[in-house]
UniProtKB/TrEMBL annotation:
<feature type="domain" description="Lipocalin/cytosolic fatty-acid binding">
    <location>
        <begin position="112"/>
        <end position="164"/>
    </location>
</feature>
<protein>
    <submittedName>
        <fullName>Lipocalin</fullName>
    </submittedName>
</protein>
<dbReference type="InterPro" id="IPR012674">
    <property type="entry name" value="Calycin"/>
</dbReference>
<dbReference type="InterPro" id="IPR000566">
    <property type="entry name" value="Lipocln_cytosolic_FA-bd_dom"/>
</dbReference>
<keyword id="KW-0732">Signal</keyword>
<dbReference type="Pfam" id="PF08212">
    <property type="entry name" value="Lipocalin_2"/>
</dbReference>
<feature type="signal peptide">
    <location>
        <begin position="1"/>
        <end position="20"/>
    </location>
</feature>
Length: 166
């Protein structure tokens, strides 16, 4: 009996050493550092944005970001984080540099505005986990030079640009 217990304990020990199944890869290398826009201004970010590139195939449309003046946005429009249906969420500013969160939108994950150009014409958003990422532009089509810069920011933050499409 003691020998059987030792054998079973050995099997359990070996099973514990097995690697966990790998989850499907996201849009970014999770080991890469990620940044957010240090000089983010929520009042300048407020308004309508066109989704011009996303990690969610076929996602397009407009997102309306309405700043309430006291720490949060009401966001409506195209949902490009994998959920079905239109986006209708409260997005709360949680830290400096365009760091936000929404409980029931954007996959419930932290939202980082990684970059926005100085005139707030284009922005790159995503999550530290890499489950979603997108480029928003005030105009459509986006200016090619600004779109290129936003893609470079996503690349710098570990995103696989082959997975971010118009």
């Amino acid at each position: 009996m003691r020998q059987l217990i030792l054998i079973l304990a050995g099997i359990a020990l070996l099973a514990g050493c097995a690697s966990a199944p790998r989850m499907a890869p996201g849009l970014r290398d999770r080991d890469a550092l990620i940044s957010s826009a240090a000089l983010f201004d929520p009042t300048r970010f407020a308004g309508d944005w066109h989704v011009v590139a996303s990690g969610q195939p076929g996602c397009k449309g407009v997102q309306s970001w309405r700043w309430d003046g006291s720490g949060s946005f009401d966001v409506r429009g195209a949902e490009c984080a994998g959920a079905t249906g239109p986006l209708d969420a409260k997005v709360v500013l949680t830290g400096p540099g365009g760091r936000m969160s929404a409980r029931e939108a954007f996959g419930g994950e932290p939202i980082y505005v990684m970059w926005v150009d100085q005139d707030y014409r284009i922005a790159a958003l995503g999550t530290p986990s890499g489950q979603w990422g997108m480029i928003l532009s005030r105009q459509t089509p986006a200016r090619p030079d600004l779109l290129k810069a936003a893609r470079e920011v996503l690349d710098f933050n570990g995103y696989d640009l082959r997975k971010i499409s118009p």
